[in-house]
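COURSE: Structural Biology Practicum
ASSIGNMENT: Worksheet 4, Part C
STUDENT ID: 0417
INSTRUCTIONS: Below are two proteins. For each, the amino acid sequence is given first, followed by its structure token string. Answer the questions at the end about the second protein only.

PROTEIN I
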Amino acid sequence: MKGGTFWDAVAVGQNVGLEALSILEGRTERRPGPVIWDSRREPRISFLVPPRSIIDTESIGCRLLSFGDYVAVPGLLVIEPPGPHWLVPPDPGQPDRLVDPVLLVSALGHADGARWATVSAGSGQLQVLVNDAQVDGRACLRCTAAELPLRPAGRGTVMSDDGVERSFDRVFCTTHLETESVSKAATE
């Protein structure tokens, strides 16, 4: 289907796209908008954004598909491979709802160079995607904000590039530290 009329598409590699989708779902606490997974030759994820969205593609390593570009759009019920399929199908109740381009750029920026870490949450453990600033204690574990004050909230572990597991101090901004404390108390 030709882009640029009802939507544009932001296409990224499969791994970064899946990580960005995970971040978007966590930040929005809902489905972020239509997302297509084309798992053929060069697997990629395409996020459908409003037409004429302004996205700095070079800084986040993606491709903006708009007027004159074509995107393989699956049928509404196609949610499994082979071929292009919906990771997040369009919402029939809100057919005009698309992925927020500002949130998408933020998620793609966070996903680039990020890795999964294990953190304690109440009596269990969670896997979260972290970047270097979060592992170094310079950014909130939940929202990636680096504004002070950041407060410590326990330890986590992350696997380094050379396969060595190391611990790190979890820090949260004031807003998310309160949310973390309420969540922790509710699970105990």
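PROTEIN II
(use this one for the questions)
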Amino acid sequence: MSFITESEIKNQSRSKKSYITLSDSLRNFKNESTYRKTKVFLSHKHDEKEYLEGAISFLKSYGVDIYVDWQDDGMPKITSGRTAVRIKERIKENHKFILLATEGAINSKWCNWELGLGDAAKYIDNIALLPIKSDYNDFSGSEYLEVYPYIFNIDYYQFFKGDYRSQGTYVVYPSVNGKDRVIPIAQWLRN
């Protein structure tokens, strides 16, 4: 059982990408049919594109439409209050909100602001953290993050959170009244 490591998320992008740049890949995906696709607002720290690339590749493998703000043609060129208004609109419009929860993103004012908006617009069924930890270190976030569902890998068939679960990726909800809720990510992204 594990959070996704930095090297795994970086390798995810390398294994899926042959010669297409991140911008080209996003543009191609944006031009695909979005009819009946789940739309995901992906909050991330802008200078961590090496993680973003892998997260997009990982999520695209589930057939979802990804929104990242810097690919939005309607986004103001210079950060301003209009930028914040546009982000608020996009968080509301997308079906799901995922924070690419790196240490940098957790410390980012913009990511925390977006998480607060996602909380208000999507809590609890349509929001999740995608924690990315340093290789061979424990993921240590801020305590307030414990109230959010998170994306988690189960490495082999095993007992986890009250039930036997197959190898795969799941969305794990915070325990409520001692009850655990764990949903395969593919199912979560369809709902």
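ANSWER KEY EXCERPT:
Q1: Residues 109-122 form the longest helix (14 residues).
Q2: The radius of gyration is 16 Å.
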